[in-house]
Amino acid sequence: MDEFELIHQYFKKLSKTQNFLNDGCEIPIPNNKKLVVTKDILISEMHFFRNDPPNLIAQKALNKNLSDLASMGAMPYGYLMGISLPKNIDKKFIESFCDGLYFIKNLYDLDLFGGDTNFNTNNIMIMSVTMFGLVNKNQNLMPHDKAKIGDKVYISGELGNSYIGYLILSGKINVNKDDYQEFIDRYLTFQCKIDLGLKIIDKANACTDISDGLKKDLTKICNASNLSANIDVRKIPINKKIKNLIEKNIITLDEILSWGDDYELLFCGNEKNFQNQSEIYEIGEMVELGVDERRIRFI
Asked: At 128, which CATH number?
């Protein structure tokens, strides 16, 4: 299979605005909207395993970028994708991979604007996705640097589920897979919090997604806002099975807070704005930076 066949037999079907006959493309921007952009790169054996289901690899490649759009409060619009595949890749893999792209396309009415493809002899897979979203022209994005003293800190879901799935699939912990299938599934794919991002864009003072772990991503907000955060570890939502693994010293709480790949929204704001917001968890408060200049205090 060559690049031309790959594009016109498989990827062209993912676009409703482009014919892929030119060297580039024009991205139409709807009236009263502005374009926002984000980018992520995935490499096999680093961000996913080669034997993961191809459709779920594709979904993860798009979802990682969609999660960034969610943290900005943007509506998904389209993407560019560069992909390098092993030269000996078979058509079944390509077909399943494209099924994953079609799934996300139908979920968000997402358009493939273009990209680049090639084949390598190193037996690796590399995917580079540039994702575009839309917001109203007069709408400010949710930033990192506008958190205020007294803001409550919220997250949108449980932490650590993807990490446990990774540990199981990589053979780093020995547990009954049937008892922990939900964590394997969570590692392989996840649902972005696009709807929540759209709901809180006018309420949150600062927001990001938890891709690098609660510690690192909250530190980004603290650094940008020149504040500290007091976090009550008892309020952090963690699955009971994971708590059991922590109690047995199989893993540590610090691993859960540091690993990442959670893709939950982490945001700060006045608690009055979130009193009626479902499926969020208040875990702490933004405070003045102390003399010790610690960015996060776990209490």
From this structure: 3.30.1330.10
Average of pLDDT values for 40-54?
93
Structural domain contains residue 285: yes
Banded model confidence at residue 77, pLDDT cuts 50, 70, 90: very high
Residue 183 lies in a domain: yes
List the CATH number of the domain containing 225: 3.90.650.10
CA dihedral over 44, 50, 55, 59, signed as positive or negative: negative
Are 280 and 237 in contact by the 8 Å Cβ rule? The answer is no
Distances (CA, A) of 58 to 48, 65, 188: 10, 12, 10
CB 41 within 8 A of CB 128: yes
Provide the greatest CA pair distance for the chain: 62
- What distance in Å separates the CA atoms of residue 223 and residue 213, rounded to the nearest whole number? 15
Write out pLDDT tens, residues 120-157: 999 999 999 999 999 999 999 999 999 999 999 999 99
Q: What is the pLDDT of residue 13?
A: 81
Same domain? 184 vs 128: no
* Strand-pair category, 281-288 with 152-155: antiparallel
- Based on the domain organization, do 246 and 288 belong to the same domain? yes
